[in-house]
Amino acid sequence: MMKHFLPKLSLISSSLLLAACVTSSPTGRNQVLLFDGSEMATLGANSFEEIKKQETINQDPAVNAYVQCVSKQITDTLGAQPDFDEWEVVVFDSDQVNAFALPGGKIGVYTGLLAVAKTQDQLATVIGHEIAHVQANHSNERLSSSQITGIGTSAIGVAVSGSEYSEIGLAALGLGVQYGITMPYGRAQESEADIVGLHLMSEAGFDPEQSVELWKNMAIASGGSEPMEFLSTHPSNTTRINDLQSELKDLKQTNEQAPNCRA
Asked: Which of these, 185, 249, 244, lies nearest to 219 by C-alpha position?
């Protein structure tokens, strides 16, 4: 049964890939994108509104001014964006050591990050990394990948339903999709965002050397509890540090100097 179905699945997958917008990321990595920029901007904006309803928004003027200053210094270097008018930055009260950026120019920073990103240059490392995800169409890429994978797994489920392959086959397929497609894809995007983000924060006048210090702080904050790299959507802290140090050797320094955002 499977030998007759697999060619059909291959045809479905090939058709989806051909129909997608095939382009390349800022580092030259090939991508498959099923959605246009305006669609992603709408999704990002809607998601951000939901997050603002669920999370506690920080009201401290000094904290907000600091995060806004660092973010604006980076976003100003990008110029006008095709799918939205301006960037929106919101600080959330939470112990999470995290930040994110969404299509549509939405940036969220959790106050827990400020205890680990100890300088404005280290905060710029994280914000630059998150903005790089947007600039490199990573959300579109992940969503497109999920759509293609979902269609494939649903089709196979129909094909093996009721056969001796149903339980074992689908269990193995699920593992294969998770560790063979989705997770490594995430690592590729994270590594790309590290490098692109490094250039963004450097172009904005922040000290790129502080990117390494940021990830050293992250390693300490994690307390050595990060999962094995193979089973993680993110590169290990050691891998990130090594990749950044390698990129720093060839990074062209900018003459611009970022303002003191803590002033």
From this structure: 244
Spatial contact of 202 and 196, defined as CB atoms under 8 Å apart? no
Closest CA to 101 of 71, 76, 73, 58: 71
**187-204: pLDDT as tens digits:** 788 888 888 999 999 999
pTM: 0.76
The CA distance from 29 to 18, in Å, is 17
Q: What is the Cα–Cα distance from 77 to 205, expressed in whole angstroms?
A: 10
Query: Beta strands 106-110 and 88-92: pairing type?
Result: parallel
Total Cβ atoms within 10 A of residue 173: 17
Instruction: Say if CB 108 and CB 177 are below 8 A apart.
Output: no
Q: Is 164 a catalytic residue?
A: no
**Amino acid code (one letter) for 28:** G
Chain Cα centroid distance, residue 88: 17
What's the farthest any 2 CA atoms get from each other in the chain?
A: 69
The residue annotated as part of the active site, out of 39, 49, 55, 130, is 130
Report the C-alpha gap between 178 and 172 in whole angstroms.
Answer: 10
Helix (H) or strand (E) holding 134: helix 120-135
